[in-house]
Automatic annotation (TrEMBL):
The species this protein was found in: Heterocephalus glaber
SUPFAM superfamilies noted in UniProt: Concanavalin A-like lectins/glucanases (SSF49899), RING/U-box (SSF57850)
Domain RING-type: 1175-1213
Catalytic activity annotation: S-ubiquitinyl-[E2 ubiquitin-conjugating enzyme]-L-cysteine + [acceptor protein]-L-lysine = [E2 ubiquitin-conjugating enzyme]-L-cysteine + N(6)-ubiquitinyl-[acceptor protein]-L-lysine
Places the protein is found: Cytoplasm
Keywords: Cytoplasm, Metal-binding, Methylation, Phosphoprotein, Transferase, Ubl conjugation, Ubl conjugation pathway, Zinc, Zinc-finger
PROSITE patterns: B302_SPRY (PS50188), ZF_RING_2 (PS50089)
Domain B30.2/SPRY: 1-175
EC number(s) on file: 2.3.2.27
InterPro entries membership: B30.2/SPRY, B30.2/SPRY_sf, ConA-like_dom_sf, RNF123/RKP/RSPRY1, SPRY_dom, SPRY_RNF123, TPR_RNF123/RKP, Znf_RING
Protein's recorded name: E3 ubiquitin-protein ligase RNF123
Length: 1235
C-alpha cells in the first residue's frame, strides 16, 4: 500500500483498521476493514495510520449503543480483556454508554449516545488537546496537555464489548460533520472530485436544454420533461461525458459527494412525480452509456451510501432527512432494470436493507424536536391496572384533563409525521413485491421471495454470526411495513378475482406444510422431525393428499439426516478466511442473514425426496403419475410458485377438506407465511421489551405522587426536608417530561392502533390456519410449531402490551376471536398429534393463563359442550408423566372464589407489599366457572375408574409436594441457625416456595372434588371410597400436625420472612385444609358425617389440638363453654374477618365442637389392641386382610392404597392375586376382589 507523505501523519494513504497486529481480543472486521464487531469481553483495535502533529479528526458511526470506549492511543499502549482504550497511560477515550471520559481515571463527560449517532473524535496536537462531538455538537475539551515529542504518535482506537458494533470513517467518505481547521486522516480524492463535479455540470446542462428542430438552436427545458429523442448531437455529447464520468462512479467518495447530492437536489426541489421522472431518465442514460459492470458498481455504492445516510441521520422534528432519502430510494427502485439488479445482488446480499424500514427512537428528545411537537406533557395518575380495579381512584381534574388533551394533540402531530415516513417505506416494499414487471425477466416479487426466505432461514437457524442477525427492533418495523404492502396486493388480487378471499379472511392452506414447496429449514413441526413424519404418515399422505413418496429417496434422506452430526470439521486450510480465530481480528463476512448459502441440513429431505402427485378425480396408473421436483429457493420459477392449469404450485396436494377456490396468489401466501415466522423469531420479544418505557413512566409517576404527598405532610418548620423533597420533585418531573415524550414516540412507532390491528390480523390468520390444519386429521402434525406459538404470543401481546391507550376489547370480532382461541387451546393442549415438549408446555401455560381472566374464561365457556367436556376429561387424566402442576393450576382457577376463605386476590400478609407485576395471572381477581365445575362433577360420577385414578394421583402428588417442602425448610432452618455466615441458595428458596404453593393448590382441588362429588369419599357403595377417605385423612392430619405444632419448624421459617418465601404462611394452607374438613364433617347427611368422623379419628396422627389451633385455642374448650376471644399473638381464623365470613367461622366452631365430642366418645369406647394384631405397615389399624397366594397380612387401607400403584406383596414381592378378609376370631375369610 502506498505510504502517504503528509506532514504530521504516518501510515498508508488509505486508512483502515489494523487487523493484522493492532488488536487485542476477538473481533469481527468487515471486508472494507472499516466496520468492527466485538466478539469477546472487551476487544480493542486501532487504525493503520497515526498522527503526531497538526489537527485531525475521524468519525465513528454508532451501530449499537452499548459499552464502548472510543478515542486515541499510542503504539506503546498494551490492552487486555479488562483494560481498553482510556484505561492505560497515553490512551484517551469517550464512553457514551456510561457518559464518561477515560484516561486511567474516569470522570463524567458528554452526553449519552444511541444507535444511529455519529461521534467525531478530534485531536489538536499543536495545542495538546483532545475533544469529541456528538452529531456535530461539541461536547467540550475532554483532555489537555497531551504528551508530545519523539515517539509520541496517536492512533484512532476503540475498545468494545461483545456484540457491540461501529463503523469508522477516516475520510474514505465525505465526513458527515466536518470541523473547521481539522482534516480527516485520509485525504479526499481532490483531483477526481473536481473532475466529477465538472462532468456532472456538463451532464446537468444537457438535461436542461433541447435542440429546437425548427430553428436548430438550444432552448431551455425542465429536466423532468427531458426525453432522449435520438438526436445525434445530444447522443454524441452524452457519450463523451460518460466516457470520462463512468470510471469515477465506482468510487465511494465520489458517489456520496457528487452523485447523491445531485439526485437529492432533484428530490428536494421537484414534486415526487417530477423527481421520479428525472431519476428514471438518469438511470436510463446510465444503462445506455455505461458498461453493465460500471452501472452495477455505481448502483451498489449508491444504495450503500443511501442506506448509511438514512441510518445515521439525526432525528429532526419534521423527519425531512429521512423523507428525502426514502424518496430517492423509491425513485431509484421505480426503475425496473435497476430494481431487479439491486434486488438480485445488493439489497439482501450486501446490505441490511431492512434498515430502510426502521424508524429509530430518539434517546434525547430535545434534539429530536419533541419539545416543540409536544410542548405539554402528561402521564396517567395511576397505572392502567389500578384504573380498572380501584374504584376509589380520584377523578381527573379540569387542569389534568386540559393537559391530557394537549398531550394527545401533540401525540397526533407526531404520529402524522411518522406516518409519512411509514408510507414511503411501504412504497418501497410495494415495488419489491411487484409481480407484473416480468417483461424483462423474472418479476421482482419472485426475486424478493427467494431473498426473503434466505433472510428468514439465517435468522431462524441462528447459525451465522450472532451479531449480524437482524436486530429485533428492525424486525418489528419490517413486519408492519410488509403487512401493509401484502394486504394491498392481497385485496388488489381479490378485486380482480371474486372467488378469492379478502385479506381479512386470510389463512395458510395446510398443504403448504407437507408438500415440500416451502422450505421451513430445521424448524420443528408439531409432530416432530419432518423426515420422521414423512415416513410414519406416508400412507395418510397418499390417502388424504394424494402424495406418494419414493421409499428409496426417503431412505436416502433419512440417512442424510443421521449422518449430519458425523461430518468432519474442515481443516485449517479449508476454512474460509472469515472464520473466527482466537486472539485475532479477521475480515468479517457480509451479514450471514443476508448472503450466505443454505446452511446445515437446510431441510435436506425436502431437496432430495421425490414427490409424486395423483389427481384425486380417479385412480391413476403408475404411468399417469406426475413427478414433481422439490426445488431449492434459488431454483424456483414463477410457475413453481403460482402453478399453471395442470400444476397447483405451492398448493399441490390439496386435502379433501380444503375448498377448491383460491385463497389468493400463491406467492402472497408465502410472504404471509414468512411474516408469521418473523413475528415468532423476534418481534414478540421486542414488543415486550418496549413496554419498559411505559413501566418507567408509571414508576416515576408513583414516585412523584409520593413525593408531593410528603411535601404536603411535611411540617413547615422543617425547611431542610422541604428543600430535599422539592429537589426530588423537580427531578421526577423533568424525568417524566422526558419519558412522556419518548413514550409518545414509542406509541406512534410500535403501539399505535394500526400496529395493533396488524398483530390482531396475524392472530386471526393463525387461528384460521390451525383450524384448517386440524381438519386434515393426522396431517396436522406437519404444521410448524411457530403457528401455535404466534397464536398464543400475539394474543398475549394484544392483551398486555398495547394498553392502556388501546384496548383489545375494541377490536372487531373480539369475542369471536377469544372463543376460537379458547377452542384451540382446549383441544390441543392434550393433542396426541403434538409431540414437542416445549409447545405442549406453552399450550398448557396459555390455557392456565386463559382461565384466570373473566373475558377469556367466558370464552372457554362459550365453546361447544363436547369440546368443554373433552377439555375437562383431559384435565382429570392421571397426573403421572405429564405437566401436572399446570393442570392442577387450571383446576384451581376454576374453583378459586368458591372455596372456604378462597376469595382473595393476594394473601393477607402480602397486602402491604408491592407485587413485582400486578398483571400476573396469579394476581387476578377470582372468577370461578360453575359450568366447568359441573362438567368435572359429571365426569367424576360417570365411570368407576375416572375418580379413583384422578384422586389417587392428586393424593400422591400432595404427599410428594408437602414432604419435599418440609425437607427443604428443615435445611433452610439448619442453615439459618449456624453461627457462621450462611447464604441460602435462592434457587432452593424458590423450589421450596413452589412446593408449598403446589401443596396448597392440590388441597384446593381436593376441596373442590369433595364439594362437587362428596359421594366419591363418603358413599361406601363406591369400591374405593373408604380407601380414598383414609388416605385423605392421613394427609390432612400430617399437614395439620406439621403446621400447627407449638414453636415448630414451620413457625420459625415463616418468622424469618426470607426473600423468595413470601408466599409461605399459615393462612393459605390452613384454610385449604379447613375447607376440606368442614365439607366432610359439617355438610351432608349424618351418615356421611359419621363415616368421615370415624375415619379421621381412627388415624393415629389425629390430634384435636391441631383443630383447636385453627381458632387460636391451645386446648379444646370444656363442653358447654363458649369459645374465648382469640389471642392476637396466635394464629386464628377469627382474625381474618375480611377473608372469612361469619357463616364460615360458625361452621368451623361446629366442626370443633363435633370433633371434641366424638373424640371423647371414641376414647371411652376404644379397647386396647395387642401389638401383634396391629397392621405391620401402619401400626394404626388392626389386621383385616390377607394376600393370596403368599398369605401375608395387613389392614385393608394399606393394601388397597398399595395396590393402586403396585401389584407385588409388601414383604415377599410375590404377585398378589387376590385380597381376602381376615378375622382373627373366626379365622375365616371370603375373597373380596382381585386387583
Amino acid at each position: 500500500m502506498r505510504k502517504a507523505r503528509v506532514e504530521g501523519r504516518l501510515g498508508p494513504s488509505t486508512v483502515v483498521l489494523d487487523h493484522t497486529g493492532g488488536f487485542e481480543g476477538l473481533l469481527l472486521v468487515d471486508d472494507d476493514l472499516l466496520e468492527v464487531i466485538g466478539h469477546s469481553n472487551f476487544g480493542t483495535i486501532r487504525s493503520t495510520t497515526c498522527v503526531y502533529k497538526g489537527k485531525w479528526l475521524y468519525e465513528v458511526l454508532i451501530s449499537s449503543q452499548g459499552l464502548m470506549q472510543i478515542g486515541w492511543c499510542t503504539i506503546s499502549c498494551r490492552f487486555n480483556h479488562e483494560e481498553g482504550v482510556g484505561d492505560t497511560p497515553n490512551s484517551y477515550a469517550y464512553d457514551g454508554n456510561r457518559v464518561r471520559k477515560w484516561n486511567v481515571t474516569t470522570t463524567n463527560y458528554g452526553k449519552a449516545w444511541a444507535a444511529g449517532d455519529i461521534v467525531s473524535c478530534l485531536i489538536d496536537l499543536d495545542a495538546g488537546t483532545l475533544s469529541f462531538c456528538l452529531n456535530g455538537v461539541s461536547l467540550g475539551t475532554a483532555f489537555e496537555n497531551l504528551s508530545k515529542g519523539q515517539g509520541m504518535a496517536y492512533f484512532p482506537a476503540i475498545s468494545l464489548s461483545f456484540k457491540e458494533s461501529v463503523a469508522f470513517n477516516f475520510g474514505s467518505r465525505p465526513l458527515r460533520y466536518p470541523m473547521a481547521g481539522f482534516r480527516p486522516l485520509q485525504d479526499p480524492p481532490g483531483a477526481d472530485l473536481v473532475r466529477a463535479q465538472r462532468l456532472l455540470g456538463c451532464f446537468r446542462a444537457v438535461l436542461s436544454v433541447e435542440l429546437d428542430p425548427v430553428e436548430g438552436r438550444l432552448v431551455e427545458k425542465e429536466s423532468s420533461e427531458w426525453q432522449l429523442q435520438g438526436q445525434p448531437t445530444v447522443l454524441l455529447t452524452l457519450a463523451h461525458i460518460f466516457h470520462r464520468f463512468a470510471p469515477l462512479l465506482h468510487k465511494v467518495y465520489l458517489v456520496e459527494a457528487v452523485l447523491i447530492n445531485f439526485l437529492l437536489g432533484i428530490v428536494e426541489k421537484d414534486t415526487p412525480a417530477q423527481a421520479q421522472s428525472v431519476v428514471h431518465q438518469v438511470l436510463d442514460l446510465f444503462w445506455l452509456f455505461m458498461e453493465d459492470y460500471e452501472v452495477q458498481d455505481c448502483l451498489k455504492q449508491l444504495m450503500m451510501s443511501l442506506l448509511r445516510l438514512y441510518r445515521f441521520s439525526p432525528i429532526v422534528p419534521d423527519l425531512s432527512l429521512q423523507i428525502h432519502y426514502l424518496r430517492l430510494t423509491i425513485s431509484i427502485l421505480r426503475h425496473e432494470k435497476s430494481r431487479k439488479f439491486l434486488l438480485s445482488n445488493v439489497l439482501f446480499d450486501m446490505l441490511r436493507s431492512v434498515i430502510f424500514f426502521y424508524i429509530k427512537s430518539p434517546l434525547r428528545v430535545e434534539e429530536a424536536g419533541l419539545q416543540e411537537l409536544i410542548p405539554t406533557t402528561w402521564w396517567p395518575c395511576c397505572s392502567s391496572r389500578e384504573a380498572r380495579e380501584n374504584k376509589e381512584v380520584k377523578e381527573e381534574t379540569s387542569e389534568e384533563r386540559l393537559r391530557r388533551r394537549a398531550y394527545e394533540r401533540g401525540c397526533q402531530r407526531l404520529k402524522k409525521r411518522i406516518e409519512v415516513v411509514e408510507e414511503l417505506q411501504v412504497q418501497i416494499l410495494k415495488l419489491l413485491l411487484d409481480n407484473k414487471d416480468d417483461s424483462g425477466g423474472e418479476a421482482s416479487r419472485y426475486i424478493f421471495l427467494s431473498k426473503f426466505r434466505k433472510f428468514l432461514q439465517e435468522n431462524a437457524s441462528g447459525r451465522g454470526n450472532m451479531p449480524m442477525l437482524c436486530p429485533p427492533e428492525y424486525m418489528v418495523c419490517f413486519l408492519h411495513r410488509l403487512i401493509s404492502a401484502l394486504r394491498y396486493y392481497w385485496d388488489e388480487y381479490k378485486a380482480s378475482n371474486p372467488r378469492a378471499c379478502f385479506s381479512e379472511e386470510a389463512y395458510i392452506p395446510p398443504q403448504v406444510f407437507y408438500n415440500g414447496k416451502v422450505d421451513y429449514f430445521d424448524l420443528q413441526r408439531l409432530g416432530g422431525l419432518l423426515s420422521h413424519l414423512r415416513k410414519t404418515l406416508r400412507d395418510d399422505l397418499a390417502a388424504k393428499a394424494n402424495i406418494v413418496i419414493d421409499p428409496l429417496e426417503l431412505q436416502a434422506a433419512t440417512m442424510d439426516d443421521l449422518d449430519e452430526d458425523e461430518e468432519p470439521a474442515p481443516s485449517a486450510a479449508q476454512r474460509p478466511m472469515q472464520a473466527l480465530a482466537m486472539g485475532g481480528a479477521l475480515p468479517l463476512p457480509r451479514p450471514g442473514w443476508l448472503s450466505s448459502p443454505t446452511l446445515g441440513r437446510a431441510n435436506r429431505f425436502l431437496s432430495t425426496a421425490a414427490v409424486s402427485l395423483m389427481t384425486p378425480r380417479r385412480p391413476l396408473s403408475t404411468s399417469e403419475k406426475v413427478k414433481v421436483r422439490t426445488l431449492s429457493v434459488e431454483q424456483r420459477t414463477r410457475e413453481d410458485i403460482e402453478g399453471s392449469h395442470w400444476n397447483e404450485g405451492l398448493l399441490l396436494g390439496r386435502p379433501p377438506e380444503e375448498p377448491e377456490q383460491p385463497v389468493t396468489e400463491n406467492s402472497l401466501l408465502e410472504v404471509l407465511d414468512g411474516a408469521i415466522m418473523m413475528y415468532n423469531l423476534s418481534v414478540h420479544q421486542q414488543l415486550g421489551k418496549m413496554v419498559g418505557v411505559s413501566d418507567d413512566v408509571n414508576e416515576y409517576a408513583m414516585a412523584l405522587r409520593d413525593t408531593e404527598d410528603k411535601i404536603r405532610r411535611c411540617p413547615k418548620r422543617r425547611k431542610d426536608i422541604l428543600t430535599e423533597l422539592t429537589k426530588s420533585q423537580k427531578v421526577f418531573s423533568e424525568k417524566l417530561d422526558h419519558l412522556s415524550r419518548r413514550l409518545a414516540w414509542v406509541h406512534a412507532t410500535v403501539y399505535s392502533q394500526e400496529k395493533m390491528l396488524d398483530i390482531y390480523w396475524l392472530l386471526r390468520i393463525c387461528l384460521r390456519t390451525i383450524e384448517h390444519g386440524d381438519r386434515t386429521g393426522s396431517l396436522f402434525a406437519f404444521m410448524p410449531e411457530f403457528y401455535l406459538n404466534v397464536a398464543i404470543n400475539s394474543y398475549s401481546a394484544l392483551k398486555n402490551y398495547f394498553g392502556p391507550v388501546h384496548s383489545m376489547e375494541e377490536l372487531p370480532g373480539y369475542e369471536e376471536t377469544l372463543t376460537r382461541l379458547a377452542a384451540i387451546l382446549a383441544k390441543h393442549f392434550a393433542d396426541t398429534r403434538i409431540v414437542g415438549t416445549d409447545i405442549r408446555d406453552s399450550l398448557m401455560q396459555a390455557l392456565a393463563s386463559y382461565v384466570c381472566y373473566p373475558h377469556s374464561l367466558r370464552a372457554v365457556e362459550r365453546i361447544p359442550k363436547e369440546q368443554r367436556v373433552a377439555m375437562v376429561r383431559n384435565l382429570l387424566a392421571p397426573y403421572e408423566q405429564r405437566p401436572w402442576a399446570q393442570t392442577n393450576w387450571i383446576l384451581v382457577r376454576l374453583w378459586r372464589g368458591c372455596g372456604f376463605g378462597y376469595r382473595y386476590t393476594r394473601l393477607p400478609h402480602l397486602l402491604k407489599t408491592k407485587p413485582d407485576d400486578a398483571n400476573l395471572p396469579s394476581l387476578q381477581k377470582p372468577c370461578p366457572s360453575t359450568l366447568l365445575q359441573q362438567h368435572m362433577a359429571d365426569l367424576l360420577r360417570q365411570g368407576p375408574d375416572v375418580a379413583p385414578s384422578f384422586l389417587n394421583s392428586v393424593l400422591n402428588q400432595l404427599n410428594w409436594a408437602f414432604s419435599e417442602f418440609i425437607g427443604m425448610i428443615q435445611e433452610i432452618q439448619q442453615a439459618a441457625e449456624r453461627l457462621e455466615r450462611n447464604f441460602v441458595d435462592s434457587r432452593q428458596l424458590k423450589v421450596c416456595a413452589t412446593c408449598f404453593d403446589l401443596s396448597v393448590s392440590l388441597l384446593r382441588v381436593l376441596e373442590m372434588t369433595i364439594t362437587l362429588v362428596p359421594e366419591i369419599f363418603l358413599d361406601w357403595a363406591w369400591p374405593t371410597s373408604e380407601m380414598l377417605l383414609r388416605r385423605l385423612a392421613q394427609l390432612l392430619n400430617q399437614v395439620l400436625n406439621r403446621v400447627t405444632a407449638e414453636r415448630n419448624l414451620f413457625d420459625r421459617v415463616v418468622t424469618l420472612r426470607l426473600p423468595g418465601l413470601e408466599s409461605v404462611d399459615h393462612y393459605p394452607i390452613l384454610v385449604a385444609v379447613t375447607g376440606i374438613l368442614v365439607r366432610l364433617l359439617v355438610h351432608g347427611p349424618a351418615s356421611e358425617t359419621e363415616r368421615a368422623t370415624s375415619v379421621l379419628l381412627a388415624d393415629p396422627c389425629f390430634q384435636l389440638r391441631s383443630i383447636c389451633y385453627l381458632l387460636g385455642q391451645p386446648e379444646p374448650p370444656a363442653p358447654g363453654t363458649a369459645l374465648p376471644a382469640p389471642d392476637r399473638k396466635r394464629f386464628s381464623l377469627q382474625s381474618y374477618t375480611d377473608y372469612i365470613n361469619a357463616e364460615e367461622l360458625a361452621q368451623v366452631e361446629r366442626m370443633l365442637a363435633h370433633l371434641t365430642s366424638a373424640s371423647a366418645q371414641a376414647a371411652a369406647a376404644s379397647l386396647p389392641t395387642s401389638e401383634e394384631d396391629l397392621c405391620p405397615i401402619c401400626y394404626a389399624h388392626p389386621i383385616s386382610a390377607v394376600f393370596q397366594p403368599c398369605g401375608h397380612k395387613s389392614c385393608k387401607a394399606c393394601i388397597n392404597q398399595h395396590l393402586m400403584n403396585n401389584k407385588d406383596c409388601f414383604f415377599c414381592k410375590a404377585t398378589v392375586v387376590s385380597v381376602e378378609d381376615w378375622d382373627k376370631v373366626a379365622n375365616t375369610g371370603t375373597t373380596s376382589s382381585a386387583p
